Structure of Electron transfer flavoprotein subunit beta:
Amino acid sequence: MRFVVLVKYAPDTQLDRHIDPATRRVDRAESILSELDEHPIEAALAMSEALGGPKAGHEVIALTMGPDKAVNAVKKALQIGADRGVHLSAEELQGADVTMTAAGLSAAINAIGGADMVLTAMSSTDGQTSLLPPALAATMGLPVLTEAIEVSMPDEDHVQIVRDEDGSFLTIRAQLPAVVSVTDRANEPRYPGFKQIIAAKRKKVQTLGLADVELSQQQVPVSVSLAAPRPERTAGEIFHDEQAGIEAVLTVLEKEQLL
């Protein structure tokens, strides 16, 4: 059984984000493994271990797409417990939107021989769109199970998840291969110890370029031609009189045709 976990090298949420004037993209110099990615890693490891792990022929592969430094996300996943890593790196793919990202990751998965289950976080900590899991599933022609608060394998041919639907719990089962997104409620990720960190140095990270994957020219994104920092917020007006404040809000709503 091959579990492929998608990981992302995302800007640290504790730091301010800004645009690199040279690349006109988000500056990722101070980035880390997206924290939410630790949950699908843990889910994959738990399922692999339940089946017998690497000794029984099962493996967890951490896959990322991004610039050279993005390999650090894969290395962190290896420290947590992934068996090996794959890094799709190509300048032409920098700044890819969700459609291009899904195409690139799908091509990378095909290049390494496919996957029985692809696991992702519920979203990345930078984009936070949650669009990649369904986009990837559509690209690969696979079923997608999203927002899992529990994930398990009732047998080696199926994956089962539990979703929280506004307080009601929905159980969904799909035949493998499939794409599954895992929420931060699904598990408690393990913390890599010293032995795991040292062992990760011996694990293999495979680097793929455009020549190693099958992508059409239409799937390669155009470069960013213009980007500017978000303008500074201007100070608002404080009303100490309640009635005056209400009237001011109503005036704005009427002006914006929201009433």
User: Anything to note?
Assistant: The chain has one domain: 2-255.
